[in-house]
Amino acid sequence: MSQDKYHQLKEYCKDNKVTLVAVSKTKPIAAIEELYALGQRDFGENYVQELLEKQSTLPKDIQWHYIGHLQSNKVKMIVPFVHLIHAVDSFKLLQEIEKQAAKYNRVIDVLLQLHVAEEETKYGMDENELMTCLEYYSAQQQNLTHIRIRGIMGMASFTDDTLQLRVEMQQIFTAFRQMKKSFFIGKPYFDTCSMGMSGDYKMAIEEGSTMVRIGSMLFGSR
Ligand SMILES: *Cc1c(COP(=O)(O)O)cnc(C)c1O
């Protein structure tokens, strides 16, 4: 990765008030250190074991984003240090994060994952499931003081069809606005729409993304 390319991307995100998460999954410690030296602090991983290994060796001021599918039984491993959990896909998982976070006396920031892509393999809730999850959350809020729902995360389909991509991104942003309107009026912390990867981040920003997750563009292909 060239320094120029990183700085350009960083500037582009800054100009658009978008947070850049560098997705370092499968990449070695040295590659992360290289970006860290250039000032990058937000890194994303999607395997718990790999994240634990990296977190234990790398500087403690890195903000670790867990962007993968999270199994309930692994929540306790990342809760002591994780900065943001992107892909919460059930109320049950929210409850488990609450339970583990309480033990560490932390408030964990999370995003709810909306499934919009065509691929069945991608995780997340559909719009109805997402709203139902938020209704449970609302009803239980006084018992859920160790989680803070910051917004939404979505992944568009893996396709070259730019029209389809755009429609899916609009679907994610619309759900984000709907969530805000229905459940988070007057809550300034509800501010995060995590969408956009190496191939589609510019479009994602046009469609309202506030956080992009960029892997291969920064670290090379996996
Ligand atoms: C791997 C991954 C990314 C980064 O993808 P690139 O195309 O390499 O930028 C972003 N989000 C999630 C959830 C991922 O798993």
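^ pyridoxal-5'-phosphate complex. The first helix runs from residue 3 to 15. The pocket of pyridoxal-5'-phosphate is lined by residues 23, 25, 46, 67, 155, 197-199, 213-217 (CB under 6 Å).
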